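Predict structure. Chain length: 415.
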Amino acid sequence: MESKLITLCLIIMNILITNGCNKDEEKKETSPILETQTPTSITSNSAVVGGFVSSDGGATITERGVCYSSINPNPTVRDFVISEGNETGNYQCTLPDLDSETTYYAKAYALNTAGIGYGNTVSFTTEVAIIAPVATFTATPDSGAKPLSVSFNDQSTNNPTSWRWDFGDGGNSTQQNPVHIYDEDGTYTVKLTATNNAGSDSEEKNSFIIVTIGPGTVTDIDGNIYQTLEIGNQEWMTENLKVTHYSNGDTIPNVTNYNQWDTLTTGAYCWINHDISWKDIYGALYNWNAVSDNRELCPAGWHIPSDAEWTILTDYLGGEYLIGGKMKSTRTAPDAHPRWDSPNSGASNESGFSGLPGGSFFNGVFDVGKRGYFWSSSELMPDNARYIKLEYGSELRYRGYAIKRIGFSVRCLRD
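Prediction complete.
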């Protein structure tokens, strides 16, 4: 009887132990089970990637989302992460701020108290970025009356769908290349706006000069014919003077000896490199004694501009300094002479003045191609006179004074 009781107790204990183990097995938790969905809505800088959590692993989901990387082909939550919700089922995440034309790797993930579950890895490549247009433009004088020709040079990936020009006088145009402005003489602001499906960009430039370029010419005593140009209320030669006689017919000495030139107290001229073949290219270089001679260098009805008259031109073009580019010819090396050495900074010749780099003469010919010096008629001190200078490496217009023995270029101004 006693042995049967013991056997019964052992059976009961075994049942209790077995039931307890089964309960423990029922309570065992695992990490979530899920899969990654196919990427959608891929753009140049974003994509939508989601997941499907099919099992929470026996424990509450505390976080779910997508991890991704452009470097690691097997991304984890240590890479970039976008989280979304804490439930089972489907979900989606938008991955932001992606690089264009780049391959990314992504996985869905979910967390519970047992650990992290990952879906399968998917990959996608972002699209080419749609870049807003860049509104850049140039403006150059044309050959007709009242000329300003503006054109654009688009460097963006996606061509603009539209252009708009605003000319500062209320006028506008949606024409593309080029746009010509034929309007009243004056100073203009020009604005260009370019638009495509990524946005718009604008560029504005101020102080474009529109002048009337007529068929004006003037002839000197030697028979040389010069083109002329009205700028504001002044009319200028657009070429350097090359006359070899004063207006009364007297010969201007052509001096080539450096030592003789240095001691002169009377007028003289020379050609570039003392070679007459340069005559029609840069004109002559004159000392100031020739400029101030009462027999006069310029044709009848014309004169050497004073420092004050150069200033009138300067003020009309927009200021004391940053107008050199508006006065310089745009011809630049490797163009044949006459031309400026590169880089010919800021040269636009918006004024039509067509300044050329004839250099100077004093103990040798200097700076041809690099600098253009132009005498004024204004004496500063007994041994000095005013001049202006244009340079190949600057958009400035310089005003200075020099000793009268130096040879500089000359431009004439109508009386």
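Summary: The two ends are 149 Å apart (CA to CA).
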